[in-house]
Structure formats: C-alpha cells, structure tokens
Amino acid sequence: MKIKLSGIGALIKALNSETVNPRIKEAVKKNGADMHQKALELVPVDTGTLKRSITLEIKDGGLTAEVKEHTEYGVYLELGTRYMAAQPYMRPALNFVKDKFRNDLKKAVD
Hints:
- Helix content is about 55%, strand content about 10%.
- It has five helices and two strands; from the N terminus they run αααββαα.
- Strands 1-2 form a two-stranded antiparallel sheet.
C-alpha cells in the first residue's frame, strides 16, 4: 500500500535536492512508526503469527517507511474473500496517519 502525494511542489524540490531536510526524514520515521503501531493494534489475533509478522522498515535514506506483513494469508484478512468478511487492519492504519503525515511534510518544507 502506498501513499501518493500530489500538489506539493516544494516537497518534490526538497526530495530532489542533494541534502534532504532532516525534518522530512523525521516525519517519515515518526508516521511510519505510528502506522506500524496502529496496524498492530487493529490486526485480528488468533494465533498471533500475523501480528508478529508486521514489520516497519525505513528505506531510501530515511525517505520511505514500509509497514508490511509477512504471511501468506494477511491479504485475505485485509480484503476478505467471497466466503469471509474483510477484517481490515492495514488500510485503517494508513488512514489513521495519512492526514498527519501530509501536514508534517508540509511543515518540514516550509
């Protein structure tokens, strides 16, 4: 799941510069951690395997935060199947941090 930001020209300029504002990296790290924590709170738990498989990885020099699960069945819980209702946990976690992340990025480039 990815967030696509549009209309933030100053952010794009800052990301293309050779020295990235450390406040941008801090916003990515903090909001990635918040999303990770929210996903852990929302994930349905049966055996705990899915919950334990959810990880946060900071990449691209601090400009990317990846929250993902490492099971074969997590997507079926997230989206549901024709026999099983969805039990979303990643999308609500993303929605939880999306607006704050956008605001944090705007503050970082101002």
